[in-house]
Amino acid sequence: MRSDKMAALRIACGLVLILALVVGVARYLQEYLAGSVGANIIATLECEMYDNVIRQSVGFFEERGTGDILARFTNDIFMINRGLAEIFAKLFREPFKAVAFFLVALHVDPVLAITGTCVLPPILFVLIRIGKKMRKTTRRSLQKIASLVSAVGESVNGIVIVKGYGMESYAVGRVHEEVGRLRRYLLRTVKLHAITGPVTDFLLLLGIVFFVLLSGHYVVEGRLELVDLAQLYFALAMMLD
Fold it and tell me: pLDDT value at position 89?
């Protein structure tokens, strides 16, 4: 009997190691594939951007300035690359997790499973509204970064003229003004980021409280076992994550 327990323990440990290996390989493939897709998109975008820019008229370059154009190839591309890496990493994993755990919840109790997901529409509504403001603020921030790069670039490239005519104060004032404008938009972005978490957490908590009361009523009436309730909580928590 004792040998049987040890054999079962060894098998369980072996299965855990195999599962950990499979998870590690799957995670590596996911991150590598997501990173590869992002890198290929960025490389293609860089080439297409330059091909498009180089064909523009002289007036195009006079209107935008060197700083604005260079910012598109540096800061903008960097932000796109960071966003793509996060998006593709979640794109391969999260939908499968959500569907799988929702099916588990449906198997336990369809009514409670559907009720537990009712918190999603208001959260999505809030995220969409904040996202629109975030997109507008981010676009303005990128424009201010381009203006700042342009101001710094012009003063550095024309340093002989700046020094020769004693225009240091003018150059400093111009850069400080651009930095001030950029700071205002960056603070707006920080404010939007900061409010997203508390609002969504509060809405989620409201949904959880309602769901706990409803599911507790099911348990009291004997319509649902505590084991099934725990399984339902776990499945919905993983799905909402």
Answer: 67
